[in-house]
């Protein structure tokens, strides 16, 4: 307790010393975020026995295995086409839990409110949290509210944390991709990011693009009912499909090859990305998942996905290879191949 | 998902309509906070099956009972005498879990960082979180980092969530106080609040007052080793001992009588409170607990508390009565009796 007032003597762990202060990119889910976890948080938390700070941790309790996850939401604006920060916060943590193959059970909600926030906005946000939780079959059981002075927040920041039960015999995680596996995405990519960008910047791209925010636990339950032989599940949020696949390639020490022509992208999202010089592979999703499973099961899983309301536009987008471990390559529309790297920072700040 | 952009039609539930916007007092742990939970959050979350949003929820998982809790920390300054926001965040959620009689097992950490935060400060904060978690025997297993634009945060906000296992046969909660029970506090009150206030306002009260931030799970384990017949445990944080006792009196529908002469208060804290016109009963603590148990066990529990490093100045401060249910009364130093009400807002904003 003696180190309270004193942070002298602390320096930035390398390679963070190149950036002595936090920059927006540290929250982008790309290389800077990964450096912060690897070089700052993990060494600090290792004292407590921390070994990994992935999307959802697996905890053995009695005879059960729980998947436990946390996520804070700072999206702006608070209300956007297709959703608001409240349902985004509920669905986001549900999805992190579901990506371990777990059935989410309970959530907590921690609010940081800014002085002056209209209570009708808070009531609308809280209501949609309750609706989202019920839709996913999850109960909001614990809460906390703090208030910060006007000018020290942005209306509402929400943390949701929660856990679910991993069914017996399920072993799904980012290290389990294997050469020969197929890569399936559950639907169109980039919807959430473009929805936020369009309302934030007042842009029009023909049709209104709505956020895809949705709880994926029902879809995951269907997939596991089809086969338990799924290796990896991942919701490609911040940093998009490209960042998610890069993390999986590194964690599993495998190569990944995708075919850009097979990527499902809404016309309006494609148009917006072309206009803005953005790549849909890097744009955030909030209601999509990537499933990686043996190629022999891929068609069955694809059919099962397409039978679910949240998976109608699912597609097989690539495969796992033993070549170039740690790297993601893409066959482009004109027949070439490019490396799909992880972004350093982010394309769009405050996306979730 | 269709209600995304639209919060028209939402109005403030009564009695919140008197305050159409969030004010600092909504985060103070007093009447305004309670109204927000009762009239806004609980009705909204009831859709999901929520029935209570207490400090830690009890969840049955397989054969085990878990206590699950969340807390966000927005204290300023980030570093203060006796601690910093990091160890406060770790200890705070550990204590909420411990107040159900549970042994905390794992914690998550969600960071909202402000652009421009020096990384050496973040490294110091993260380090002390690791140390605090190890001290309490808890593992930090899941994390999340978001970054907000300069001017939309205050350096660091931290959410911690976590759960622990409630031992078989333990039933501790705020509704269980019974007439005839004794009320014990584990040490001097008001230390944390005065420590924050002194450094924030640059005040001197003779000796430096240090925050009492500490993990109470070890002390709770000792008490439960002495007797499992403990009815209520409570850490009197925001709103102090007065607010905690009011909440217990209401939840248990009992009266509470305390004797102010028995309240342990450090000289420097008493001096600061007199100078500032504050009542130590309302000042926050971050390493103290209130235990309520049958009077016949009180002396044993008191002795056991005093044998623990965090309970050396423990004292029996009052008793539970069947009179005036829902109210807390105090015998004053000059022999009178006064009602100790819950505060409307708060004495000190941003205390935790």
UniProtKB/TrEMBL annotation, chains A, B:
PurM-like C-terminal domain segment(s): 178-324
CDD domains, per database record: HypE (cd02197)
Domain of life: Bacteria
Entry-linked InterPro entries: HypE (IPR011854), PurM-like_C_dom (IPR010918), PurM-like_C_sf (IPR036676), PurM-like_N (IPR016188), PurM-like_N_sf (IPR036921)
Assigned protein family: Belongs to the HypE family.
Protein name: Hydrogenase expression/formation protein HypE
Segment forming the signal sequence: none
All copies of domain PurM-like N-terminal, residue ranges: 54-166
GO biological process: protein maturation
